Amino acid sequence: MAYQFENVKLEKGMYGQNGRSFTKVLEAMDPSENYKGTALEGLDAFQRQLKRFDIHVKGAGSDMVEKFFHTNESSVLFPEFVSRVVRQGMESDILPEITATVTHFDGMDYRSIASVPTDDEKELKRVEEGAVIPTTSIRTQENLVKLHKRGRMLVASYEAIRFQRLDLFSVTLRQIGAYIARMHLEDAIHVLINGDGNNNAAPAYAVGQAPIGGTAGTLSYDELVNFWAQFDPYTMNTMLVSNDVMLQLLKMPEFQNPLTGLNFQGTGKLSTPMGANLLRTAAMPGGTLIGMDKNYALEHICGSEVTVEYDKLIDRQLERAAITSISGFAKPYQDASKVLTV
C-alpha cells in the first residue's frame, strides 16, 4: 500500500513561514487524519518522515547523526529534530507549574490585560431584585510587556558529531533546552517579584516584621502560617523557594511526620503543611520565598518556542548555530503572588 508521506517533497522553504512551524507545514501536506486505522496511526507528519528515511533517533540502536544527511531531502529534517529535542529539555523545567496561562504572540512587545478589584469589589454581595449587579473591570495594561530572546550557541563541527549516535547527541540538546528554560524561569521570577513594568510588584513581607512576626533570619511554622493568611481571597497553592529556605522548611517539626517523610523518600516530592506545591530552584534569590495562586499569578507570553538556524544545520555548518526561544511574562493579578523574606 502506497502512503502519501513517501512522496512529500522536502525543502528549506518549509521553515521560516510566518505563523507556521515546520511541523504545521508538513502536516498540511500530509495530514495525520489520513492514517487513522493504519499501522502509522499515532505518528505525526515528522515522525512519518523519519520512518520514510529509516532514521532511528532513540535507543541503543539509534542511527548516527550523518544518517540525516544521506540525501538532500532527509537533511531538511535535521533542524526539526534539533528543535524537538531541545523542547524536551525545556519541558523538564518547573515553569509550567507556576504558569496560569500561555499566550502565543508574534512580536516583541505585548500588552496584557488585568483586573484590579478594590476591596469593595472583592466582596460577594447579595443582589436584591432590581438592584445593580456588581461589576468587574478588565483593562489593558498601561505599559507594554517586553519579550526577551534567550538561547545557546551550538558550537561543533559536522566532522566531530557525524559519527555520534543520535541518542547520545540528544543528551546535549536536552541540556541546551534546560539552560534556556532556566533563563526563562529567572525572567518569570523577576516578574513575580518586581512586576511586569505596570506598577504591580508583589506585596512584600519580612520575617520579624508585622504581620508575619518571628525573628529575622529564622523561618518557623508560625511565620509560614501568618504568610499563608495574607492570601485571602486567593489560595496559596504553590511556593517557590531558594535552597537555604528549603533547608529551613525541611527542618521544621511539621515536616518530620511519617507521612511527609514517606512521600519525600518515595517520590522526591514535598507538600507543605498548607497543601501547596513546593518547588525549589537555584534561580530564586537567597532567603526568599514566593507564595502564589498559580491559577492567577503569571501569564507566559510565548513569542517563539524554539528557533534554530535551519540554513546552517541543513548545510552542515554547525560551527556556530544559534538555538533560541522568545518569551515574556505578565501579572494578571498583582495580589495573586506575594514575597516573604526570611
Walk me through what this model shows.
The chain has 342 residues and is α/β, with parallel strands linked by helices. The protein is 30% helix and 18% strand. The chain has 11 helices and 13 strands. The strands form 4 sheets. Strands 7-13-10-8-9 form a 5-stranded mixed beta sheet. A 4-stranded mixed beta sheet has the order 1-11-12-6. Strands 2-5 form a two-stranded antiparallel sheet. The radius of gyration is 25 Å and the shape is globular.
Summarize this structure as a short list of keywords or feature phrases.
30% helix, four-stranded mixed sheet, 342 residues, single chain, alpha/beta, 18% strand, phage-related protein like fold, five-stranded mixed sheet
Brief summary:
The protein is α/β, with parallel strands linked by helices and about 350 residues long.
Task: Give the biggest sheet.
Answer: 5 strands, mixed
Oligomer: single chain
Q: Terminal Cα separation, in Å? A: 67 Å
Residue stretches low in confidence (pLDDT < 50, at least 5 long) are none
The best one-word shape is globular
CATH class of the domain at 88-113 and 138-342: Alpha Beta
**CATH structural fold name of the domain at 88-113 and 138-342:** phage-related protein like fold
Radius of gyration: 25 Å
- Strand arrangement in the largest pleated sheet: 7-13-10-8-9
The CATH architecture category of the domain at 88-113 and 138-342 equals Alpha-Beta Complex
Average predicted local confidence, pLDDT: 87
